[in-house]
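call fold(seq) -> tokens
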Amino acid sequence: MAEKPEKKAAQKEEKGISNTKGSASYGAKDITVLEGLEPVRKRPGMYIGSTGTTGLHHLIWEIVDNCIDEVMAGFATTVTVELLPDGKVSVQDDGRGIPVDIHPQTKKSTLETVMTVLHAGGKFGGDGYKVSGGLHGVGASVVNALSTWVKVEVNRDGGSFVQEYKRGVPEYKVKKIGASKSHGTKTTFSPDPTIFSEIEFNDKVILERLRQQAYLTKGVRINFYDRRKPVPYFYGFYFEGGVLSYVKYLSQKKNRLNEDIFYVEKEAEKLDIEVGFLYVDDTRVVEMSFANNINTPEGGMHLTGFRSALTRTLNNFARAEGWLKEKEENLTADDVREGLVAVISVKLQDPQFEGQTKAKLGNPEARTATESVVSEALKVFLEKHPQEAKSIINKVLLTAKARLAAKAARDTVLRKGAFEGLTLPGKLADCTSKSAADSELFIVEGDSAGGTAKQGRNRHTQAILPLRGKPLNVERARLDKMLANAEVRSLVIAIGTAIGEEFNIEKLRYHKIVIMTDADVDGAHIRTLLLTLFYRYFRAVVDQGYVYIAQPPLYRIQLGREIRYAFSDDERDRVVAELQKTKATGAAAAKAAKGKKSAMAAGGEEESALSGEEAPAEGAAEGSGDGKRQPNIQRYKGLGEMNAEQLWETTMNPEFRILKRVTVEDAERADKLFDTLMGDAVEPRKNFIQAHAATVQNLDV
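ret:
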């Protein structure tokens, strides 16, 4: 993400702050009523979360969710998603098909009503669906509103029907185009480029979502086609094991501690509850929760119920079997969750989500029902599988001991920081600003680059923390070992949020934490180690957009007195061509001026117009006939090769620098990637390297 200086006026405009006061009148004429789908186009973020790539893909999820609802209702067996050329997407199911007869309220076709009226759908208490993911009735209409073009084809009642729309407005009434023996709905849409910042669908993101839906819906067949290239790409999903199969998938290539997976599927309090979990030899937690097949990344009542049941049941069992002594404190929720791989899926008639993006489930009955079902089934599981029970209890007891050791180490770090310079490590060159919003922390590779950065920085807003050597790989270390590492400890103290149970994002001392490493393999490795640290232990700092990666230039290009910088090979070639062209033009102009001067002198005219001019620019006078000279190109291998002025000008000056903000769009995929690249298992990392060897870039040799 390139950063540019923000003008105060622009900031006020962005925040909706006017430089002048509004009109004193405030009456009916001042109230704007948005009709039809206008509210969606006016405030798309309210309906799809954002207008970036996440919101773009949300359009697909809305239509796919409708198809899955047909499957859960028992009327569809197949869902097909196709990525088409020119940014179009097609989603089809073989369900009942959207009704096309006239709706009694709107007096329009039901299909047109569903596609053009907000909060119109078959999921508000009618007999169409027992359970569904779409409950607000806005999914299809929102996709319609945010697309330049939509075409819906319906097969039902022996006929084939169609209607097209442009930016939510019907092109014509629903019409029958022929007879049909099939049934289902096919929706094809083209997202609006005036709404979305970029129209580029990610097939990996889509495949992961479709795989998830296939696991959660036993027996559904989901087909995916990518037709954007000359040779189409196909992928299909079909699983009969449901959540049990999903747990196996999430734990593949991990060292399982209990081979017999806990699994229960039962109805309670009018909820269908399906839960599966096992433990792996790891320190992280993988909990996937769903309500009516909708992923709830922020959890909710069903996840709370599961956690309560797990903690209480394991505590009761450990004490009953004598593994947990009378004087020992109970296992905590964190103790029993470390190394857990769990999937919690509930289906209910009236789900209450927080927000249209459905990130959290709020139904209280989901907690009591899930807790009851899991508690009862887990007690039976532990009694019937004594060897599995022993492995699980040993795992959580070890975690409890590690927690106490980590707490002691963390307290030591915090106490030490409090006694040594008010928590700030000596190697930190802090900024003078006391405002976190204005302060930036540059984490720099090595003392040499750190010294240069300290000389070139803006002392008021920019702090420098040099790291000596490579940081600890926290993917393979517990918290107590991690805090014993001097470099990691310095970083934890400098950031100010504390860590683990004491973490507090409100105490963050810098709202820009910039990783600034060399543009080579070692620099990339250090950057990856630091990102692993932030992702695993400072996730909120990443989620709130405070972590950045600096982009120092790769090349310094000089021709004559002009110096330019390039950040890639392509930019280097472009700069070289521009400089040579500029010099050639300058040489020609200088030659013409010299000829004119000679002609004027020969004609006896005054020379005053040229008498005060400087000599032709360097390069123009010395160049060959075409004015071209070869630029001097320097390839930077490290930040230490720059002087303080160059480092400031190219990498630290907010007016010209390029910073890339670190974001996590898919936490599950990110978690698996960190595990693959930084975890203990060698085989997955080897396979990853082999699979991507042909497409690697920026490899030092």
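The longest strand covers residues 147-156.
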